[in-house]
Amino acid sequence: MVRGLTPGALRYGLPPLLAGVVLTPVSGPIGLGLVALGLAAVLFHRDPQREPPESGFVAPADGSVSVVREEEGRIRVGVFMNVTDVHVNRAPAAGTVESVTHRPGANKPAFSKDSDRNERVDVDCGEYEVSLIAGWFARRIHPYVEGGDDLDRGDKLGHISFGSRADVLLPERVEHADLRVNEGEDVTAGETVVAVDPDE
Q1: Which residues are CB-neighbours of 79 under 8 A, at least 6 positions away?
Q2: What is the mean pLDDT of the segment spanning 126-154?
Q3: Which Pfam families match (predicted)?
């Protein structure tokens, strides 16, 4: 794995890059187009360093808050990742992974309400749960963790290739007054506090 890139960067970026280099002398526009496509794939899979705050539940993804709703007494905050966002997902708080569950499903646009039925990977950390949700173009969810793993706030959970959404289902003790974001706000994975923890 190349530092600063997710494991999928070279797998998706190298083939069009190499093909572009070979084809550019023969067919300039096609070759240059493939080089641009390869560079875009590599940039899409970038993995910058993050500095988590000392408290609170942080955003699980870069992007725009697309969901804030209550579910059976708990609050869900969902973040839609645009194609230009970093797609590495991070732990909202410290905890121990109890289970990692893959659930097959549809591939609706990740920003739509129908995306709740999309293919997903749920990372259950007991007090909170993170759902990595595939979009219409993103069919590849890559979790990095498994049951029994201990996490610190901001640790990497995985990444989703090519567009997606990541949700955090907060603990029951977190109330609407504890939220620090609203729908439509931009957030940064591992750094932006989406809710304070009343127990901290």
Answers
A1: 59, 60, 61, 62, 63, 64, 65, 66, 165, 166, 167, 187, 189
A2: 87
A3: PS_Dcarbxylase (PF02666)
